[in-house]
Specification:
The structure holds 2 protein chains of 2 kinds. Helices cover about 35% and strands about 30% of the residues of chain A. Chain A has helices spanning about 45-55, 75-85, 105-115, 120-130, 150-160, 180-195, 205-210; strands at about 5-15, 20-30, 35-40, 60-65, 70, 90, 165-170, 195-200, 215-220, 220-225, 230-235. Chain A starts with a strand and ends in a 5-residue tail after the last strand. Chain B has 2 domains: about 1-50 and about 270-410, no CATH class; about 60-260, no CATH class. Chain B has 16 helices and 12 strands. The radius of gyration of chain B is 33 Å and the shape is elongated. The chains are: A alpha/beta, B alpha+beta.
Chain lengths: ~240, ~400
């Protein structure tokens, strides 16, 4: 049996206010180690909210997210930060690199925050990561000296810095041209093939089709799960 | 920690103008505080030095501190005798020479006898009430700065002229007398004595100069109508600050009231403490105000950097680490500002010490007295650093509570 890297149990996220609003409405999901999952759905369907919950950026109103078998709902904010630092890597639609830092320094940021490696070891790893993403010669450039695709690749390198079990990407190609999109997706695919779990939110059906599994969300619920090359599974719950 | 320093440094070093303004604010606060402290303490110390130099450090008088308990009061609880005079019927300190030699054996300083009485000085029809102190010139040198305060004549001249007196310049001016003139002294018992002005002195304290005149002990005793009496012992200590302690011991030993210069000037010293309080308040306010620039900068940076904060938090940086970044930034601004403030403070002190003002008491032009103390620098720097940290804390706390999801959603 494959090892479960990420699991959601009856996940609900509500925003309380004058008008209560349910973003994620009872989602059950299990992602195996090394699996590449794409979450799709129309705007406002709750796919990003689900991703934030899975990446522990946000706390669920109900339900549980288990990372590598470890429940997280009882963790304090600091402990959740620690889990994010060591077990999750984030890639967003915008690169969100620190503008004053070089590519290498941006990649080193999570490693320095974790403080588990020596400076030399960190630099070595940072450079190796940039090199593996074809950015070796851009290590000392600042984000504003890079193209959109290059920035996003630096952001991916940063997400990989602490060797996280799970990479969570929110529309990582949303702001990129076709060529860069292709590059970024191949990289994510390679990451999954190397054994790290990848969960991507995307609007692009062509890209979603290349994932191991596609989860379609409508109104905060799973409407449809498609295995790659396999049959479509329509969830009764959503219909 | 290195990472936090790195980020903090990046933030402040990419905002040169704002950072400089913040540093200038801190520097001004620290600099002016140091200057004010130096000036206030300088003038205070200068004033006290004049005061201490002019007066004996301890005066032992021929009276008791409290009314002696009457035998009847000791015997019967119901008896109260309210109208007992506190001054002995026979004026004077008993066996002054014995007392003095006993005191000399242990006090850190010297003691001289004097005769203090009141009189009226009469010259060309003008009459002014004065205090006449009869002194022994050889001993006087040990206990007061009178010898160095002489403007005309010397202490020894007292014995060179008949019934010689030394008059303060201010009084001499009032009466229009000069050295060598003869004036009439009228004592309390109606004794009249023709005296010759042997010299003039200036202590720098107007109230002393206008009302205090000196003679030998003999003429003063004549004015009192008590020959051979000594009613005052004046002590001068090697360290004036010991006066209160020594005075208490002298009083315990002799039984006579011994008044230290601090006690004699308690009103003045209490004014000083009020003044100190005001100065401290003003300086504290200055330092606090100067840290507002820091508050502004940290506020601005945290606002501009919300996205970076969100991303750092999403990467797993803890709240306290984010908070620390901004505290470090404030500390950087603060520390550099304080260093500049120290230089500024020193330069201001130096500059002010070159300013001279006319002193109407001494009639001379004197430079402003500045007291240089390392303590001023340490305290001003310390308080300023605390203010900076405090100013940064609130925006930093707010920044550290940024919810990454809100920012990331807002940006995408």
């Amino acid at each position: 049996m494959t090892e479960i890297a990420l699991q959601a149990k009856e996940l609900v996220r509500r925003i309380e206010g004058d008008v209560s609003h349910t973003l994620v409405n009872g989602i059950d999901l299990a992602v195996s180690k090394g699996e590449f999952v794409a979450i799709t759905g129309p705007s406002g369907s709750g796919k990003s909210s689900l991703l934030y919950l899975l990446g522990l950026l946000d706390a669920p109103s109900e339900g549980e997210v288990m990372i590598c078998g470890q429940p997280t709902s009882k963790l304090s904010e600091s402990d959740r930060a620690d889990v994010r630092l060591t077990k999750c890597g984030f890639v967003f639609q915008f690169h969100f690199l620190l503008p004053e830092f070089t590519s290498l320094d941006n990649v080193l940021l999570p490693m320095r925050a974790a403080g588990k490696m020596g400076e030399g070891e960190m630099r070595e790893r940072g450079l190796a990561l940039l090199d593996s993403l074809g950015l070796a010669e851009h290590a000392n450039k600042r984000p504003n000296q890079l193209s959109g695709g290059q920035r996003q690749r630096v952001a991916i390198a940063r997400a990989l810095a602490n060797r996280p079990e799970i990479i969570v990407a929110d529309e990582p190609t949303g702001a990129l041209d076709t060529k860069s999109t292709e590059q970024v997706f191949s990289i994510l695919r390679d990451i999954a093939d190397n054994g790290q779990t990848v969960v991507v939110v995307t609007h692009d059906p062509a890209l979603a089709a290349r994932a191991d599994r596609r989860i379609h969300i409508v109104d905060g619920k799973i409407a449809e799960i498609t295995e790659r090359g396999g049959a479509e599974l329509v969830c009764e719950a959503a219909s | 920690m290195k990472l936090l320093f790195n980020i903090a440094w990046t933030h402040v070093s990419t905002r040169v103008r704002q950072t400089l303004v913040g540093m200038a604010g801190v520097a001004m606060g620290v600099g002016f505080t140091i200057m004010m402290a130096g000036l206030m303490q300088g003038s205070q110390i200068d004033f006290l030095r004049q005061l201490v130099d002019t007066m004996p450090h301890i005066t032992v008088e021929d009276e008791r501190r409290s009314v002696p308990i009457q035998p009847a009061e000791q015997e019967y609880a119901a008896v109260q005798m309210p109208d007992i005079a506190n001054v002995g019927k026979r004026p004077g300190i008993k066996y002054p020479d014995t007392v003095m030699s006993s005191l000399r054996s242990w006090i850190p300083g010297d003691v001289a006898p004097s005769v203090k009485t009141t009189a009226i000085i009469n010259h060309a029809g003008a009459r002014i009430g004065i205090t006449l102190t009869g002194i022994d010139p050889r001993r006087e040198v040990q206990v007061s700065k009178l010898a160095s305060q002489m403007r005309e004549g010397k202490l020894d001249d007292l014995s060179r002229v008949p019934n010689g007196i030394i008059v303060g310049e201010a009084l001499a001016e009032k009466l229009g007398v000069k050295t060598g003139n003869t004036v009439l002294l009228i004592g309390g018992q109606g004794v009249q004595l023709n005296s010759t002005v042997a010299g003039l002195y200036r202590s720098g304290l107007k109230r002393v100069d206008e009302s205090q005149i000196y003679s030998l002990t003999g003429p003063a005793q004549v004015m009192m109508g008590q020959s051979g009496v000594v009613n005052q012992l004046r002590l001068r200590l090697s360290d004036p600050m010991l006066a209160q302690k020594v005075a208490a011991q002298v009083e315990a030993q002799t039984g006579y009231k011994a008044v230290s210069w601090q006690e004699a000037n308690a009103d003045l010293l209490s004014t000083f403490s009020v003044r100190d309080f005001i100065v401290l308040t003003v300086m504290g306010a200055m330092l606090l105000t100067s840290s507002f620039a820091t508050y502004n900068i940290i506020s601005t940076i945290t606002h501009e950097k919300r996205q970076d904060i969100a991303i750092m938090k999403s990467l797993g940086m803890r709240e306290y680490a984010v908070r620390r970044i901004f505290i470090i930034e404030a500390a950087m601004i603060g520390v550099v500002g304080i260093l500049f403030g120290w230089v500024l403070g020193y330069l201001l002190c130096y500059g002010w010490s070159k300013i001279t003002i006319f002193n109407p008491l001494t009639g001379t032009t004197v430079p402003l007295q500045i007291y240089y103390s390392l303590m001023h620098y340490v305290v001003a720097g310390g308080i300023s650093l605390l203010c900076c940290a405090g100013a940064a804390y609130f925006p930093a706390r707010k920044a550290s509570r940024v919810h990454p999801v809100e920012i990331i959603r807002g940006a995408s």
